[in-house]
Write a structure and sequence with these properties.
- This is 4-diphosphocytidyl-2-C-methyl-D-erythritol kinase.
- Keywords: ATP-binding, Isoprene biosynthesis, Kinase, Nucleotide-binding, Transferase.
- This protein is 32% helix and 30% strand.
- It is built from 10 helices and 11 strands.
- The strands form 2 sheets. Strands 1, 2, 3, 4, 5, 6 and 8 form a 7-stranded mixed beta sheet that branches. A 4-stranded antiparallel beta sheet has the order 9-10-7-11, covered by helices on one side.
- The protein is of the alpha+beta class and 283 residues long.
- It has 2 domains: 155 residues, Ribosomal Protein S5, domain 2 (2-Layer Sandwich), CATH 3.30.230; 109 residues, Alpha-Beta Plaits (2-Layer Sandwich).
Length: 283
């Protein structure tokens, strides 16, 4: 049995730069993996089949599971005859803006690369991962990276770290944000803010924190707006929605303050975790 960690991601900065002719949007974002997430395990089988088990029943059919899709893609693209029996310890919530499904798919690529002795490079896995989802290429290696396009054009950065002694709290309210609702009414910013951010001291998370989706999501989903305000009132130096929602993360001056805030928020959220940045996997 081989094991692989699937870390969650947050967006320390996220802007919508432009709308593309194909209907998608060009983004500018700073991705960061954190040290909480799902756990994926698998062992090879000789039947050639892909099977999935979970720690609790999932809300989607097997064909929609991104781990399953990643395994099938590798079999089809590389002519792999072996199969795999997966067990997914699912902790990250769905529709949370934490990249949960994409992180699981990325973990599947890393795991199967070892299990099936594929000898794929990180770049090759990223290229395949882009066929599964826009966040998958980043989550193959994780760490800290600028991303542009639909999130697939990556510029890896030296690992960022939280200020000494501080801790991050991520929480997901009792709602989910459909992607269509997040984009509805969102007017692209152009690239001026993004270009300025890339040249700034982006390690100063508080001064640079920005998420364009907050403009459309917070008015539509009051529980997310309340969660952000509650984190600030509980002592966070700053708080920001991740991705297109629904999760919010805050950086607290100490781990104890983050843990106390997590306890107070627990009755009103569907997921909460105190975390640190995760430096990623080797390229």
């Amino acid at each position: 049995m081989i094991h692989e960690f699937a870390p969650a991601k947050i967006n320390l900065f996220l802007d919508i730069l432009d709308k593309r002719p194909d209907g998608y949007h060009d983004l500018g974002t700073l991705f960061q993996t954190i040290d909480v997430g799902d756990e994926l395990s698998a062992e090879a089988n000789t039947s050639g089949e892909i099977s999935m088990r979970y720690n609790f029943p999932q809300e989607y059919p097997l064909e929609k599971d991104l781990v399953y899709k990643a395994a099938l893609l590798l079999k089809q693209e590389l002519g792999v005859r072996a199969g795999a029996d997966f067990y997914l310890e699912k902790k990250m919530p769905l529709g949370a803006g934490l990249g949960g499904g994409s992180a699981d798919a990325a973990a599947a690529f890393r795991l199967l690369n070892r299990l099936w002795n594929l000898n794929l490079s990180s770049r090759e896995m990223e290229s395949l991962g882009a066929k599964i989802g826009a966040d998958v290429p980043f989550l193959i290696c994780g760490g800290s990276a600028f991303a542009e396009g639909i999130g697939d054009r990556l510029t890896p950065l030296s690992p960022l770290t939280l200020p000494a002694g501080s801790a991050l709290l991520v929480a997901t309210p009792l709602c989910a944000v459909p992607t269509k609702a997040a984009y509805a009414g969102c007017i692209p910013s152009g690239d001026a803010r993004w270009k300025a951010y890339r040249k700034s001291d982006f390690a100063d998370f508080k001064s640079g924190a920005f998420n364009k989706f907050e403009e459309t999501v917070l008015p539509q989903f009051p529980p997310i707006a309340r969660l952000k305000q509650e984190m600030l009132s509980l002592g966070a130096d700053f708080a920001l929605m991740s991705g297109s929602g629904a999760s919010v993360f805050g950086v607290f001056p100490s781990r104890l303050q983050a843990e106390n805030a997590a306890k107070k928020l627990a009755p009103t959220v569907r997921y909460e975790a105190v975390a640190d940045f995760f430096c990623g996997f080797s390229h």
